[in-house]
Amino acid sequence: MLEKIYSYKRIVQELHQGVLGKYIDDFALYLQELGYFKNQLRARLTVIRSMSKWLTKNKISLFDLSDERLSHFIKIRKRETKRFLQRGNGKTLSYFVDYLRSKNVIPQSAPAIPANESIEKITQAYAKYLAEDKGLCVSTIKRNKKCIFDFLYNQFGKNKFNSKKLTQNVIMIYIKNFKDCHNLKSLQVMVSILRSFLRYLVMMGEIKVQLANCIPAMPSWRAVTFPVFLVKSETKKLLRSCDRRTLKGRRNYAILLLLMRLGLRASEVISLTLDNINWDLGELDISGKGRKHRMLPLPNEVGNAIVSYIRYGRPKCLDRKIFIRSRAPHRGLNNSSSISTIVRRALIVAGLKPQQMGAHLLRYTAAMETLSHGATLFEIGELLGHCSIDTTAIYTKIDVVGLRELARPWPIK
């Protein structure tokens, strides 16, 4: 494998003779499968070559290669190399260490010692409940677990978790202190998570009193704002901002169409796989919140954009997700923020400056477009995957024609 990357035999021999020599070829092949080209492979293997020399010089065996020693090596390399040679060092070493661990060449990293084992145990059980019973996504579970850990650690510190010490007074003091340091949105999210956890404790028999009912509702004025959306001329500008002659442009064009035509959430776009498309029936199987699935029709415009991306823009890889990183490593897009970043950049290129710049802007746009064509709130709710009609009701404020029919005449004296 190395002979295809390097033209100098001396470098190939040097790589093969080092401590890491017998693993280099397979690792280079692994990087190639991730989508790295020849010049990128040389850059990535340079740091492995340097580490091999360092291990040999310091007489460190692979079995003694720990996270601390890796961090020490990266510090040394930063001092000894120029900045452009340091780019990607940490990521390359991370890939290489994971590869060696998968082959049992070096030991698995020791798990981090939790700040409080009893709190970690209860929050881990809560996270498992959220995953298995509630069907929440990984990022939401991670956020909720951290929120509850912070709450419990604030109450118990290093002491053992004791559910009997959770009282209404303790909870209200924590909420008050949290309110002084955070904005209203963060407060609302924290209170919602805290209620969920307290109900979980009742369900598990840890506490008998339904403390969740003791927490007052946080002020919410969602109904005073209008949904931010794009009009038809703006959506055309946004789509024209994608250069469909490029691989990334084809991908971004398909993503924007899914958001503005079908009103998908960013998380739903991320989770789309090749298996979710039924080409014969022209349908998309959407996996929404809480493991809820809905079947949506696949418009010709959207289907053609996806086909164009898959045939002429999607990198070859083993990942079944539809939308793949344009740069190596070729894997599915990381998270919902990746979709919002694509939308925000497209808006900037198109010269549009709406109040909201994320992926949800196009979800609102899809809802308003559907409403303008005479769809009912129930139909819009089904398209967007809403569980309650109250969530969809916000769009009635934009239906001026319908509101005029409900308006009472102004009294004339």
Could you characterize the architecture of this molecule?
The protein is mainly α. 58% of the residues lie in helices and 3% in strands. Strands 1-2-3 form a 3-stranded antiparallel sheet, with no helix packed on it. The relative contact order is 0.07.
- The proportion of residues in beta strands is under 5%
Major sheet, described briefly?
3 strands, antiparallel
Total DSSP E strands: 3
Calculate Rg over CA atoms: 27 Å
Spatial strand order of the main sheet: 1-2-3
Brief summary of the model shown:
This protein is an all-alpha fold and 413 residues long. The chain is 58% helix and 3% strand.
List the helices and strands and how they pair.
Blueprint: H1 2-5, H2 9-17, H3 21-33, H4 38-57, H5 67-80, H6 83-86, H7 89-102, H8 117-132, H9 138-156, H10 168-181, H11 184-203, H12 232-240, H13 247-262, H14 266-271, E1 277-278, E2 283-287, E3 293-297, H15 300-312, H16 336-350, H17 360-372, H18 377-384, H19 389-392, H20 400-406
Antiparallel strand pairs: 1-2, 2-3
Provide tags for this entry:
mainly alpha, about 425 residues, about 5% strand, flat, 3 strands, about 60% helix
